[in-house]
Amino acid sequence: MGWPPASVDDLRVRLGASLFRRVAGPSGEETRARIHGTPGPRWFGPERPIRTVHGDASMFAGGLAALLLQSLHPLAMAAVAAHSGFRGDPWGRLQRTSTFLAVTTFGTADDARRAVDRVRAVHRRVTGTTAEGVPYRASDPRLLGWVHVAEVDSFLRAHRCYGAAPLDRAGYDGYVADAARIAQELGVEHPPRTVAELAEQLAGYRGELRGTPAGREAARFLLLSPPLPWQARPPYALLAAGALALLPPWAHEQLGLPYMPRSARPVARAGGVVVTRAIRWAMDPPPPDGITLPRARPGGSSRR
């Protein structure tokens, strides 16, 4: 005997609301209304590729992959470990990051500017030294550049693999160029503007990357010990596998992760496809009676 339609719809609504609260926080609905309901010019129009990429459920896998990849820079990882509170308040950090992405991608130019100014003020306060005594500054343009290229590369790879409507090469070049606008506002010097430039800059950081105890501990926390109820662990495991499949093999080795043979990557990506489609199903419920409604998205965003 199957579920009655009302029960399926109710499950869908509850799952979508739960996911939205996780990524957007308790004030997510108010934040989403402000982002999309405030009139005024935007940095990016509705036709821009960054809206397509950042408004897709593939961002869940891309965000996890980005965190893992970013942790391979010892200075970036030292700053995160000392200042972000990712272990004590991982959901708070996720909500702040997703809100920043939503505001700068979909919000008014004034709100985007204020969001950037807040982040830059935080970066100016984040300074310290690594366990080896190497000084770091979160406002260092070189370090900001690494965080940016690792993030954009991960989001792009995730959208190619798991996006509802992958873009063509010109579309992804446009995405990289759009993301460069935000990067420059944050203090990145000469951010990449094409997919080819993104790959070149990412390769240019290879000599600075290595696995550290803090980075490997963060990877174990993100992959094996996330603060989730037991019911959410199986789908999260699929999401994690999908995120790992996005990382280059050298990143697996440096993070101390089990080697993923080439033959296993399609299986891991299949898991990523399944969980991304489930997230999309939960967060994009069909409108009742033909009415067009805003579509819930990661980061407190929605597309109209």
Automatic annotation (TrEMBL):
Protein species of origin: Streptomyces lateritius
UniProt name for this protein: Oxygenase MpaB family protein
Enzyme class: oxidoreductase
Molecular function terms from GO: oxidoreductase activity
Keyword entries, A-Z: Oxidoreductase
Classification via Pfam families: MPAB_Lcp_cat
Enzyme Commission number(s) of this protein: 1.-.-.-
Domain ER-bound oxygenase mpaB/mpaB'/Rubber oxygenase catalytic: 52-274
